[in-house]
Every structure is written in structure tokens, then in C-alpha cells.
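Q: A reviewer asked whether we had any structural model of the full assembly, not just the individual parts. We don't, so I'm hoping you can provide one. Inputs are below.
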Amino acid sequence: MSGRDEILGRIRAGLGRGALEGARRAALEAKLANPPRNLVPARAAALDHADQVELFIEMAGKVDTQVTRVKDLAEVPGAIADYLAQKNLPTEIRRAPHPLLDQVPWQAWPTLSIQTGRAEGADAVGVGAPLAGVAETGTLAYASGPESPATVNFLPETHIAVLRAKDVVAAYEDVFARVREKSAGGPFPRTVNFITGPSRTADIELTLILGAHGPKRLHIVLVDDGEG
Amino acid sequence: MQVTSQAFKANAHKALGDDNLKTALFKLQHHFTNNRTRAVEALPEFERLRDRARDIKNEVLGALDFYLERFEQKVAEQGGTVHWCRTPRQARETILSLCRSVEAKTCTKGKSMIAEEIALNPFLEENGVQPIETDLGEYIIQLADEPPSHIIGPAVHKTLPQVADLFLEHHKRYGKTERQTEPEALVGEAREILRQKYLDADVGITGANFLVAETGSTIIVTNEGNGDLTQMLPKMHIVVASIEKIVPTLEDLSTILRVLARSATGQEFSVYTTLSTGARQSADLDGPGAFHVVLLDNGRSEMIGTELQELLRCIRCGACMNSCPVYHAVGGHAYGWVYPGPIGAALDPKFIGLEAGQHLPNASPLCGKCESVCPMRIPLPKIFRYWRDKAFEEKITPLPQRAGIGVWAWFARRPELYRLASRLGIGVLGRLGRKAGKFRSLPLASGWTEGRDLPAPEGRTFHDLWQERRGRRGPPKSGDPFRKLFS
Ligand code: SF4
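A: Here is a predicted structure for the entire assembly that you could use as a starting point for your response.
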């Protein structure tokens, strides 16, 4: 007997039945085909969108993330250049080949040198475009794909996310709704990353240190784009 | 890992005399419990989310066969493979042959309790594949050649100077000859050294906090980002997970994630929650070319339908050990196997046998702290009692203890004799200790008097005092402490 059959057989013996069939199975199939929402905390879900954006900024701030609000995409390179200058960081940037980032007028800021594609070990600053920001905990959500390589969000020491205010959602469930929509009929993205603040560890005497393996700092440029 | 649970008493004794450990455990107790309390208070729905989380896992366990098959099907649709392993040995061999299929020399590893359970590292090493732990805590104990002492903070027992010494000793060969003493510098040094390991590794092995049946996704939750670098850079990503990690849908995942970080570290959300689904897709610019899930049973399927089934709801958050007075006193290593603290005391006897693990369910005052903080509402004290009963029935409980319980049971069925005997005992002790009011040492009770004095009894038994009060005052009134005890 294969390991698979043995394991399934033992589970069924424990449950005192054979393979699941009939109405019970149909009910579970229906749940998987159309997953119902469980209780979603009111913290963000009960707010209107403008307040969700405010909550997102507040929660991100609590986990050591700096948020800069800008009017439109034209202001993005300036905001990034200012942040890098203020922290005395290199201005060589690796950005994701994302359509939103394609629209940013990078050439207007010659001090920034931009490369597009997946990140390599030596890249110092990564710029990505998340699928959404989650208000309830100030979390960014990325779905990997040709326009959003995951290495950009993890390898460089500094991570910068360009997020439209209208892509701020209330809850994790809202992110999953977007991922499902995006991948409808095709495969699910290889990785979905929820990122809440910069990397950290407390493994040495419970002392909190930022930048264990992932980025040491996280900056969000929030683009109002007519909203807010 | 080598089982040392048989020696729990000796282990605990040693731990009680270890001052470094005492300091570390004191810090841990306050750090995690305060953070948890704060996070729970900030989320009014927390208790209802716990109920829902418990119900979700109960649903899963009632249809685990169905969900596992669906999970496998989804993984296959995404270009991955599921390997079903009954035993730790099968799991180890499967992982080794996967490593060999890409001629792996090194593999990076994210933190995985299942990898500890199957003793993966020594096996890979013996067979020519060098495993490199990347979670900082795991990395520290790998250098120290020690097992983890906590499920989410494997190196909580290590002090800063100990880590400084370890790094100096092991990082010399990378040209790091200066002893760093600040946590930040030590983290920086590990970051630099491990960075190259991620880039060089042929295989990345991670655990999984959850497996989602709906999509075939495996989920890891970390703060460091090590698990992500581990899985996105090498050619192959291997996930090692046990069968009960299933959750049905992404909505169910969301619910349980909301109780996990708050219970574990007291964070609102961990820094990185990552869903990995299949291998890199054709147009992707990065990600592993191959994706394998090694599913481990190791006796879990036998727990379904038994008193132990509820343990399969555990999400390994560590809240029970953070709240446990016994864990606070003796630390994780005393438990002598992979899972320490209350969850270990409930689970380990199943894996290592009740004979070897008999002391663990006894290492609890049944205070119920663990159950009160467990996000999955697992009745841990009930499981301890189950094991205690079983140990007694199977005559595993040591003879003096069995005899003691036998004597007590004999007297308990004969109340008059019981009263007489206790009156005699208390009277004698009371007279002997009248002057000092306490005993520094007592024959047969050194286990108690070694660490503290035994107060001398007043010379009267509880029964006598009780009778006297009833006689004097008639039925107890409200406000009488005895009434409170018995009404
Ligand atoms: S038993 Fe409960 S509290 Fe303990 S690790 Fe498991 S889920 Fe957490």
C-alpha cells in the first residue's frame, strides 16, 4: 500500500467512515468553490475609504514604516530621492517592471539611476508596486508575476513601495479577492507576500533589531491620484 | 533528536540552578505575555476569532482526507508534487533524494519544527548535503549544536555573551576575528554571512504554518524574511509539513492568521506572511524551478477519533509555554524532546512513548493558564490528565507513587480511619515544629525542603476545624471563608 493510501485509510478509520461522498462532500466542494467570509474585524472594515487610508498610514507607522503621501505619479521620483538623501543611501535603484512604475517619469530625476528587472545580491534599493495595502495592520500585499519579481522586495537593504491610495483595502480577505480575480482561469501566483514593516529579529536576548535578513528599512510612497 | 524526557526530573533540577537560564526565562515571560495582552486588548473581536479558529480546525479534522486530496490536486495543477510520508525515515529519505536529484551540496533552511521532529539536519549532513539554518535563533543553536528550547524563539536560552563567543568561534573562517558584543553588530554579521549562503544554495527547505486546500498554497510566517530568501533563490523549494496543517480556504487562513501573531509574539501581524503555490511560472523572473511538498504523518492520522485529536488543532504559536509557570522555571530543554512546554507535555508522550514521556504530563500544576491563552482552545490540562490516567492504568507510574495513591484511595473509602490517621500525623508534626513554626528539613520530604521550608501545621486537621465551626455557628453564613469554599 502506498503511504498516501495508508494515511488516508487511517484518517478514514479514525473518522469511522469511507471516502467522503454524497451531500457532505457536495457541501465542502461548494465551500471551496465559493469560500464564505468569516468574521472580519470592524477596525478597518467599518470605516469609509478615506479613513481606511488614514488607518493604513497609522498602522504602518507603528511597525517602523515611513509613509510619504504624494499627489500623483509625477511626484514619486522626488519623494524617493528625498528619502534616500535623508537616509544617506545610494541612489542606484532596482525597480520591478510593473506597469504602474512604467508610468513614473523617472528620467525627470537624473540623480536616480534606475534598472528594471529582478533583483540581484548587490542591489541596494528595490522599488516595487504592491497589489494592495491592507489597512487593518498597515500591511503591503504583493502577488508575484512577470511584472512583480519577489526578489525586488527581499534582497535589497532598502525597500520602497509605490502604492496608489485607491489600492488600500480593509482586510486580508480583500487582498485574496483581488488575487483570485487576477488569476481567474489561470494559475495562482507563485508567491503572495504580505509585508508588515521591515525585517526584524528578537532572537538575541529578545532585543529587537531591524533588518535581520530582509530589508532593513521600508518606505511607502502613497499616491493619491485624485483621491484623498 | 535524542530523547532525554525520561530524565525530566534531573533536567529540571539542573535547569533550576542555571542563572543564565533563569534570567532569560524571566525576560521571556514578561516580554511575550505583556505583548500578547496588549495585542489582544487592541482587537475586540479576538475571543470570537478564537472560537472561529477552533471551529475551522475541527471542520478540517472531520474531513482531513478530503482536504488533503484536494490540496494534493491543487499542488499538482500548479506544477508541484506532494510526497506522502508515514514515518520520519520516509520523509528524510524523500528529502535526500530530492536534494540528490539536483546534485545539491548545500541547502538553506527556514525554521521548521517538523524538520526537528524528523531529525533532518544530521541525516542530510551524513549524506553529504550541508544544511544551513537561516532563522537567526536556529542558526545560533546550530552553531552551538543544541536543540531549540522554544518553538518560536529557539535560542531564547542563550545570552548575549554566549552568542558573541559562538560567532567569534565560528565566523573566524569568514575573516571575522573581532568579538562583537552588541546585538545589532551580531545580527549584521550573521546577515552578511548568510546572504552568500542563500545565493549559493541549491535547495531551499522551509516548513509550513498552513496548507490551503483551496489553492494548494503553503504558508510560512516569519519576521526575519529568511524563509523567503530560502525559497526564492535556489533551484528547488521543498516544503516539509505535517498533515494537520491544512486549512480549507484563504478566508479561513485569514481568520487563523489574525490569532496567530497576536498569540505568539503579541504582534498585530508578523512581518512576513508568504503563500507559496507551485513552482516558478513560465514568464516569472525569479522563484524556484521545482516545488515539492513532503507531507509527514508520523502517527497523527492515528490521533483522529481519539482523546488526542484536539491536539491536532495546534498552530504552534508558543503561547502556552509563554504562560506556563513550569516552563518559566525549567525552560525548554528540560522537556527532553522537540516540543517543550504544555503542548510538548501533551504531545511528546504520543511520539516518544508514554514510558519515556511519563514525567511530562505530570510537570503541570493543572492551573489552566495554557488553555486560557491557547488561540485554538485546546484543553491541554484535560490531555495531561488523560496521560496521567493512562500511565497509572498501564502501571508506568513509579511504584512509590502508585503505592501512595493506593494507600490514599484505601483511606478515602474509609472516612473514620482517614480522619484518625490525619489527626495523628498533623498532631505529631504540629508538636515537633511548634517552636520554629516550620521545618528546614524532613525525612522523606527533601524534594520539598531542599528549596524551601515546610510550614509546621497548627496541630489540628481541617476536618476538626470544620466540625468545630459548624457546631459553634450552625450552618455557615455568607462571608464565612468555609462557605465560600463549599457552596
Ligand atoms: S497548544 Fe495552543 S497555545 Fe500551545 S502552541 Fe499550540 S496553539 Fe499555541
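A: Points you may want to mention in the reply: The longest strand of chain A covers residues 158-164. Chain A touches chain B through 79 residues (CB under 8 Å).
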